[in-house]
Write a sequence for this structure.
C-alpha cells in the first residue's frame, strides 16, 4: 500500500512540476514578446484543404511594427499586399481579415498566450524549440479554429511557425525565415 501511495505522490508532484514548467515557458515568451518593437521576415504559407487537389503554397514578406502594424505581402504565386494598422485596414478588407491580422500579430508577439479568457494554452519544450498550443475558448474563435500551434526557438524566443487548425479540418501553416527582430 505504501508503494502505491508513494507512486501516486510522485506522479502528482511530476504533474505539478510540468505545469510549473509550462507556465514558466509561457511567461518567458510573453515577456520576450512585450519587448519586440519590430519584425521583418520572409514566410511560406501552406494551406491543406479537402477542397484542393494539392496544397496551396504562397510565399512573401511580413513586416510588423509595435503596437499593431502588420504588412503582409504575398510575392508568389500572385503579388498582393494587405496592410493592417490598428483598427483600420486597406479599403475593401473585411472584419475577418482584421481579426486574423490581430490574431497573427498578437500570437507572434506572445500576447495571445497570456489571454486566458480567449485561449487555454499548453507549452512544452521540444528539442531546441518551445511548442505552444492554444485552444480557443470563445465561441467565435471556436467556430474558426480547433487549435493554433506556435513554434518558438527556445534560445531567442523567435516565432518560426504558426499553424492554424480550422474547425472545417483545413490546416494553414506559416513558416517564418530570415527574421530580423528589433527589441526595446
Amino acid at each position: 500500500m505504501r508503494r502505491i501511495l508513494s507512486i501516486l505522490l510522485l506522479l502528482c508532484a511530476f504533474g505539478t512540476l510540468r505545469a510549473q514548467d509550462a507556465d514558466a515557458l509561457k511567461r518567458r515568451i510573453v515577456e520576450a514578446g512585450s519587448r519586440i518593437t519590430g519584425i521583418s521576415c520572409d514566410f511560406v504559407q501552406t494551406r491543406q484543404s479537402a477542397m484542393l487537389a494539392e496544397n496551396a503554397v504562397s510565399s512573401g514578406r511580413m513586416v510588423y511594427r509595435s503596437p499593431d502594424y502588420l504588412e503582409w505581402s504575398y510575392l508568389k504565386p500572385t503579388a498582393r499586399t494587405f496592410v493592417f494598422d490598428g483598427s483600420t485596414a486597406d479599403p475593401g478588407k473585411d472584419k475577418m481579415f482584421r481579426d486574423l491580422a490581430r490574431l497573427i500579430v498578437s500570437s507572434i508577439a506572445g500576447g495571445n498566450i497570456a489571454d486566458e479568457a480567449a485561449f487555454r494554452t499548453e507549452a512544452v519544450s521540444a528539442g531546441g524549440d518551445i511548442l505552444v498550443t492554444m485552444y480557443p475558448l470563445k465561441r467565435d474563435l471556436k467556430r474558426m479554429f480547433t487549435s493554433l500551434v506556435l513554434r518558438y526557438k527556445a534560445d531567442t524566443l523567435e516565432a518560426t511557425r504558426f499553424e492554424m487548425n480550422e474547425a472545417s479540418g483545413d490546416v494553414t501553416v506559416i513558416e517564418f525565415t530570415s527574421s530580423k527582430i528589433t527589441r526595446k
